[in-house]
Amino acid sequence: MLSTVRCRLSSWRLLSSISSTTSSTIKYSTLPELTKDRYPNVRRSDYSIIKSNHLEFFKDLLGEHRLITDENECLAYNTDWIKANRGYSSCVLKPKSTEEVCSILKFCYDNNLAVCPQGGNTGLVGGSVPVFDEVILSMSLMNKIISLDETAGILTCEAGCVLENLDNYLAERELMMPLDLGAKGSCQIGGNVATNAGGLRLLRYGNLQGNVLGLEAVTPNGRVVDCLSALKKDNTGLHLKHLYIGTEGSLGVVTKVCIKCPPKPKAVNLAFLGLNSFENILKVFKKSRHELGEILSSCEAIDADSLAVTTEHLKLKSPLDKFPFYMLIETHGSDNTHDEEKLNRFLGKVMEDGSVLDGIATNEPSKMKDIWDLRERITEGYLHDGYVFKYDLSLPLEHFYSLVPIMKDRVGRDAIRISGYGHIGDGNVHLSICVKEFSTEVLNKIEPFIYEYTSKLKGSISAEHGIGFRKTNYVHYSKSQEAIDIMTNIKCIMDPKGILNPYKVYPPSRRWSNFK
Ligand code: FAD
Ligand code: MLT
Ligand code: ZN
């Protein structure tokens, strides 16, 4: 079946060409309003305001080229990728070593300056940019690979390495990164670790909490926490690395990472399928687990409106006619004959029983990339619609798509488009409600309803993107009060002055109760 695949696709630019860290890519006309104006209830805490003596210190430490104070240059670091949040920091610092990170944090701690750690600035919850004027600590120059154990598949590198660069480096050595996401051309491994990023192949390779063997971090007062173990087994006391995985730069700055890298699969196959109902998506996913077993590496679902943002706005070409739903099913294995046979048998069955109406399958790299672009660039496509209210929920599989019709009823004509797509294999839906521009009225129709709904179903209000700035009011929908108390106490112990990534992750009512 694979050889009969239609070949009408052409290639187009990589997501990396829309890198978020070059000021030229951000147009003034499309800038979001300042976060402090959009969310007037959030008040600046009494951190120091940056002064010339502070800047003198940073200049002495980093030199003038690694201290950015120019307003225009700062703009790209102040604005997040989906243009939903904007701070007004006038100080971006670009350390090149752990020692420099230590000196910066110690100085900020002693001088009561708030700090916002920043990786590739592709985060989707407003965690990577300042809320007010926090000093931005950009990790982009800490981008060296330190070592690779090719036999064990263990990579050690600095936190600012871009995910795609690491993957390319490993590919030359028959290895791969255990995670892949649409932002790979810009996001950094430190940012991935800080957000415990999921992505497109979590189903097969697991999350970063499992794949990160060790890391090095710097505490808010400038001390190095060396947990850079490269051991697969190490049960010596508390696993402190978990304090930094998924805590979004609120407890420390990740400076180095040691990560398990699986072998690059010798055989990769990808099927793109058209279906007429969500029920059939569930049937096909179930069948794929049973029929493809150990070679299943990805299972993604897309509805027609989500696909449309890539075909309409980005002019990508879909190889299939229009269907209400689509799926991407990918296999990673070591024997192509075996994998093709399995995939063909599976596809034969799902077409025969009517759950799939049409589909193509390919193992040609350029065609697979073209198909993956249709999925990976949905987030980018949405930016062309206007403002996107984005939700990243874990829901029981039977409810994965249920919010789309519900939100269509609630938000109605206020929205340009309401759609759902995501990692069906992980029960993680991305719900997008697109409007021309941000509106509090629409926001109130969506929140807190969407979180109440998720909570009733025992889902998660943030499956993989984190809490950042925008979801701090809703943590209690996914965590008990006791859990929130423990989280806040840990923050108080590790960052008693609360200088790291303030206004984020922790619920506002609990945030500073112990500090000030
Ligand atoms: P940033 O956005 O710069 O920062 C994210 C958070 O981590 C912030 O709170 C920041 O303060 C903190 N941080 C960054 N670096 C460090 C550090 N070294 N030490 C301490 N804290 C740090 N996410 C997924 O989980 N799955 C996906 O499939 C996915 N796809 C995406 C596709 C697109 C097109 C885009 C734009 C985003 C996508 N994301 C996805 C979200 C985002 O890419 C991830 O959260 C990513 O891990 C963020 O990495 P970053 O380097 O850009 O971090
Ligand atoms: C994805 O899976 O594409 C990302 O998590 C980004 C998004 O939610 O759009
Ligand atoms: Zn995702």
UniProtKB/TrEMBL annotation:
Cofactor(s) listed in the protein's UniProt record: FAD
UniProt-listed Enzyme Commission number(s): 1.1.99.39
Subcellular location: Peroxisome
Entry keywords, A to Z: FAD, Flavoprotein, Oxidoreductase, Peroxisome
InterPro entries from the UniProt entry: FAD-bd_oxidored_4_C, FAD-bd_PCMH, FAD-bd_PCMH-like_sf, FAD-bd_PCMH_sub1, FAD-bd_PCMH_sub2, FAD-linked_Oxase-like_C, FAD-oxidored/transferase_4, Oxid_FAD_bind_N
SUPFAM superfamilies reported for this sequence: FAD-binding/transporter-associated domain-like (SSF56176), FAD-linked oxidases, C-terminal domain (SSF55103)
Gene Ontology terms, MF aspect: (R)-2-hydroxyglutarate dehydrogenase activity
GO terms for cellular component: peroxisome
Residue ranges occupied by any FAD-binding PCMH-type domain in the UniProt entry: 85-264
Keyword S-adenosyl-L-methionine appears in the UniProt entry: no
Reactions mediated catalytically: (R)-malate + A = oxaloacetate + AH2
Function, as annotated: Catalyzes the oxidation of D-2-hydroxyglutarate (D-2-HG) to alpha-ketoglutarate. Also catalyzes the oxidation of other D-2-hydroxyacids, such as D-malate (D-MAL) and D-lactate (D-LAC). Exhibits high activities towards D-2-HG and D-MAL but a very weak activity towards D-LAC.
Family indicated by similarity: Belongs to the FAD-binding oxidoreductase/transferase type 4 family.
Quaternary structure and partners: Homodimer.
Name of the protein: D-2-hydroxyglutarate dehydrogenase, mitochondrial
Organism, scientific name: Cryptolaemus montrouzieri
